[in-house]
């Protein structure tokens, strides 16, 4: 008989908050660069940092996925009804899939060799410029969708906390 857990285990919480910081930074700084004209030095600095940060994030995200698949999730314990729980689960799955798509397309869109924090050089996996552009387009649109889902996700947490359903305690 499985015992009901009330919060995510420590490793899941660490994975979540590290992921949140990396994904929030990469998504919104990347969208900022796509929308706002900034000086080229800043564009290069932010882009290189994002590439390095998200490259280092790849094994962390893989670990998060494996851990999520192997561990029991805490029950919502009356904070969500069945439909809300189903919606939350669906949004989480979609976010995981989008993050995977963004990571894969991000790697495949690279046309030039890049440095990871000046330590390791990584050569592009694809040589075909058209394919790189295609993956770049996928990467950008998936990032826009993820930004919307992040806003929905955070908004839902804030709403539930505000209405007296302490859902955040599962992840703290």
UniProtKB/TrEMBL annotation:
- Specify whether Heme is a keyword of the entry: yes
Chief location: membrane
- Which stretches are transmembrane? 12-36, 42-66, 87-108, 141-162
Q: How does it sit in the membrane?
A: Multi-pass membrane protein
InterPro entries membership = Cyt_b561_bac/Ni-Hgenase, Cytochrome_b561_oxidase, Di-haem_cyt_TM
Which parts of the sequence belong to the Cytochrome b561 bacterial/Ni-hydrogenase domain?
A: 8-172
- Gene Ontology BP annotations: respiratory electron transport chain
One GO molecular function term?
metal ion binding
Q: Where in the cell is it found?
A: Cell membrane
Name the needed cofactors.
heme b
Instruction: Fetch the Pfam families from UniProt.
Output: Ni_hydr_CYTB
Q: Which GO terms describe its cellular component?
A: plasma membrane
Instruction: Cite the entry's keywords alphabetically.
Output: Cell membrane, Electron transport, Heme, Iron, Membrane, Metal-binding, Transmembrane, Transmembrane helix, Transport
Similarity remark:
Belongs to the cytochrome b561 family.
Can you say what this protein is called?
Cytochrome b561 bacterial/Ni-hydrogenase domain-containing protein
Q: Which organism is it from?
A: Pseudoalteromonas amylolytica
Source organism phylogeny: Bacteria, Pseudomonadati, Pseudomonadota, Gammaproteobacteria, Alteromonadales
């Amino acid at each position: 008989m499985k015992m009901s857990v009330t919060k995510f285990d420590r490793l899941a919480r660490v994975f979540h908050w590290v992921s949140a910081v990396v994904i929030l930074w990469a998504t919104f700084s990347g969208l900022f660069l796509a929308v706002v004209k900034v000086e080229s030095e800043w564009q290069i600095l932010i882009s290189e940092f994002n590439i390095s940060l998200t490259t280092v994030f790849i094994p962390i995200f893989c670990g998060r996925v494996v851990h999520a698949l192997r561990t029991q999730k805490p029950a919502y314990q009356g904070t969500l009804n069945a439909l809300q729980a189903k919606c939350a689960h669906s949004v989480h799955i979609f976010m995981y899939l989008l993050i995977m798509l963004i990571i894969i397309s991000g790697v495949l869109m690279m046309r030039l060799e890049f440095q990871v924090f000046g330590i390791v050089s990584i050569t592009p996996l694809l040589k075909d410029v058209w394919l790189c552009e295609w993956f770049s387009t996928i990467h950008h649109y998936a990032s826009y969708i993820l930004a919307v889902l992040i806003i929905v996700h955070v908004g839902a947490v804030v709403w539930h906390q505000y209405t007296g359903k302490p859902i955040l305690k599962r992840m703290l």
